[in-house]
Amino acid sequence: MVRAAVLSEQGKPLQVTDIVLPEPGPGRVRVRVVAAGVCHSDLSLANGTLRQPVPAVLGHEGAGVVLSVGEGVTSVEHGDHVLLNWAPPCRSCWFCDAGEPYLCERAADAVEIPHAELADGTALYPGLGAGAFAEETIVPERGAVKIPHDIPLEQAAVLGCAVLTGAGAVFNTAQVRPGQSVVVVGVGGVGLSVLQAARIAGAGPIIAVDTSAAKADLALAQGATDFLVSDETTAKAIRKLTGGRGVDIAFECVGHPAAIRTAWSSSRRGGHVVVVGVGSAKAKVEFSALELYYFGRTLTGCLFGSTDPDVDVPRLLDLVRSGQLDVSSLVTATTDLDGIEAAFADMRDGRGARTLVRFNP
What we know:
27% helix
């Protein structure tokens, strides 16, 4: 038996209870979770914004230690430190062969496969294929990315989603160049990662926008040169900061139609708008045919930072070692399993950045 936070039904609170994990089958890896970040996608899975088979163990941004492996697993072994990868590429589909593993058509397969049971034998599904809100979990072999022992696992945990997504949006999707102006709309865990990566890339000015004035100090500490509280004058204020043109690149990290429009209106003619936030399928964003033509902007969706964890994780770890990337500063609160609902409330109210669930070593 291991303790886990279980979602019995979307729209209901998570309940901490004992679950039963089997021994890992072929191609599977059992991991003792050391830490897991509470991501907005977990909240979206819990409240029904995103589809999730239930009952389920949520949590997808985590790191831990390999306890055992199933038949055929060769990339990791007992005792290895690993980062959980919630979108493991198959390496054989059309998208993987095309060099776009973040669009792998089989990346979500593990979501549909039960990985554990409740005490009464009811099958449990892993949230986003990871099930990290538990003392232990079982993931596919490609869902466990081996990392060196010199990186503290509590720091590594947030790499699995917030940093890979945010930094990947800067380095891979937008390919920010030195001197380009940037705005980041929404400065939660992903948005703060975008700010840090934009600073590393040499962007400037770097403008942070959020609905909460309380985020100002946090955003400025991560690399923002300016901070604005979002209102109807935001786009005008951003143009004023950028010679009247608007920014070269706008990152939207909320997934809300109003935030996407703010990012769009804040970018210059010929600029690039990158939508990183995960929105609802029911939320619609409208553009006139004329503005699409006249402004000549590029609007790009960004899934998982356009990353390949096997390639990008080592690069990000090098930035962590050099001190350029400070992942620990993204964590503004820590809790245990019983505090996940409070962490969800903080996200809904715009308080802080990442809450980290810490498990006993």
